[in-house]
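Bug report (template v2)

What were you trying to do?
Predict the complex of my protein with guanosine-5'-diphosphate.

What happened?
Run completed; filing so the output is reviewed.

Input:
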Amino acid sequence: MPELGQSAVDAQDLALFEGLLAGNRRELAKAITLVESTRRDHALRAQKLLDAVLPHAGRSLRLGISGVPGVGKSTFIEALGLYLIGRGHRIAVLAVDPSSTLHGGSILGDKTRMELLSQRTEAFIRPSPSSGSLGGVAAHTREALLLCEAAGYDIIIVETVGVGQSETAVAGMTDCFVLLQLPNAGDDLQAIKKGIMELADLVVFNKADIDPAAAQLAAAQMRSALSMLHPASPNWKPPVLTLSAMRKDGLVEFWQTIEKFRTTLGASGEFEARRRHQALAWMWQLIDAGLRSHFHQAPAVMSELQDTTAAVEAGRMTPAEAARRLLDISAG
Ligand code: GDP
């Protein structure tokens, strides 16, 4: 069985590969464009590049950050990024934005959102890919994450808006999932789906400068709500913090909490276990997608599909029988 790192990159991508490993931002951006491409020849080159890159990836902390538009994600990520650069880190910011795939527009906007951070050579900011399904966008972001790690970024932030399945996708590719909230004490809690709260390793109420008492109250309510849920980790009770991204207040405590999280989950083995689990889940997602595409491309299926779907719609065939027949055809 071929091992990772043994497959050579395409000759035309050698400079790209070397530039990437040297931490060159331009080469990194080009490599991400290659993996996002829908062209078949690009996909083959991208796969070789990713195989070659993988042994150099993995040495970062992957942080997922989710919150509704306006909660302060870009303000927070910019403040946090600049703080971490000051501590000697290199930061990459990636995005999974379901709106960009649905309308071609983006809730998360582009990199001008984090103007100060984007000017720093220690930072790399990449907007969400703007085509494909959410699954496709998430897969590209996952690959971009590996490329950023190989380029030497040691903290990768993947941000998303609180819409649909995107939180699950981001939690499934990061080590620590942070839920950013507004301190509208009380009624807001009901709006957060239980399933999303259970993904959180840490909940942060931003804009605490506006009404500190309301922020404290919201945090207390969130603590009690979380205590009734099934936590994401058996070794970690998700803390609830308040901060002000605008005033850069609470960033130190936030980062201390993240470091404590890493140490705690590292000591129990859960940190590595999560990554192993995520890698396997990703493999199965790719298998599902591959089977689906194989099914739709099979000529025998294409010729039968219309009649069979019409038969199911007209009630002449049961869905189960139709599915069985089509699967048999695609396999044969
Ligand atoms: P995003 O859509 O989640 O990325 O939110 P933004 O970072 O663009 O912030 C939305 C608005 O909230 C902007 O006008 C920010 O200046 C403001 N904002 C962000 N963080 C804070 C904060 O901590 N306190 C206050 N008062 N305003 C904030």
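What did the reviewer find?
Residues 67, 69-75, 206-207, 209-210, 244-246 surround guanosine-5'-diphosphate (CB under 6 Å). The chain has three domains: 1-56, 57-267, 281-331.
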